[in-house]
């Protein structure tokens, strides 16, 4: 006998209630279910294996990057979290000297690389030796200097560098960005002999004498940048590997997330992230330390496009990247676990999953295929779609095809908004383009777009073009 449409496939008696959900859409708010319903895709083991090069977790929005890093923070014993927003990197952007040199075309790559090496090295030392106060830091430095064997020049240079900067290791991370930026400003000012912020370094509207002065100033500043203590920091990293993090059984992780947020103006942010990726290669030399970074795929491509220079080879970085992808079975397991957690916690000890709650087919298509096609195999979108179905199933024992169609309309509306939010930086007029492809099938050819639609769009936007939009 066929079951009524609002009765679940198992026949177990319960009804969905208002507020039922299989999880939040951001990792920060979904902590409990992230722990209880984790699906092992193999990526966790790859990231936590210090012998493997993959340390940049790459994926589209909603693919689970932050969730994976949060699990590492929760379950690994030695983890340092660095949030870009808390680094005071805005201080660099507000520096008159940095802004002037950027405008004049000076290459600040060495400085940006030094900045990350300095921040990461000092954070590792601070964490390992528990340098939480000024007194502890002073005692540690004293012991370090007294135990130094003068015959080892590499360690001598490393300890000299640590001694120069180490008296403030106990300070918050943001302090390091300010102190090293201020050191660069002071050195450039001393080399040039004048306040660089009083000189107009832009190349327009200058007579010959002024242009020569600008060239001289930029060249002097560039010499200061090029002479930054990269060698000393390399010695520090050797010291970290040989004398500090020398037990391969004791792993230490540094986790950096939220690079796609607006913690600095885009052009500076792109250069800083490129420098971070470069720096990750340097830290591969410390065998029991791994720096882990999460990044959206589109952000990574933009960084390489915007910071490309002579001799750039993308393939040199490929070994660092771990692309986060999901299979149909993995996503089914994820949704099953979350549904079972909801139902067992709220209703019954019985275990009910996707196949018990949802219809077998929708429009003649296997429901799971129907769902994944509309959520692009991304866990966040799949969870959001199921939540939309639950909202419309209050008082029911199962989710019907009618409910799924209603949920799809709302989910699609929200996905359009999410796409705009994700790509607005690259395509400022993206929302306008949607009018050209409305009501077209999932797959279509460009010729399928109505000529009348294109002409109407062109006429209505001809006085409103945006030079920052590559499609406009």
Can you characterise this structure?
With about 475 residues, the protein is mainly α. It has 2 domains: about 45-325, no CATH class; about 330-460, no CATH class. About 55% of the residues lie in helices and about 5% in strands. The protein has helices at about 30-35, 45-50, 65-75, 90-95, 95-105, 110-130, 135-145, 155-165, 175-190, 210-225, 230-245, 265-285, 295-305, 330-345, 355, 365-375, 380-390, 400-425, 430-435, 450-460, and strands at about 55-60, 80, 250-255, 290-295, 320-325, 360, 365. The protein has a 5-stranded parallel sheet with strand order 2-3-4-1-5, with helices on both faces. A two-stranded antiparallel ribbon has the order 6-7. Helix 6 (about 110-130) packs antiparallel against helix 9 (about 175-190) and helix 9 packs across helix 10. The chain is flat, with a radius of gyration of 28 Å. The termini are far apart.
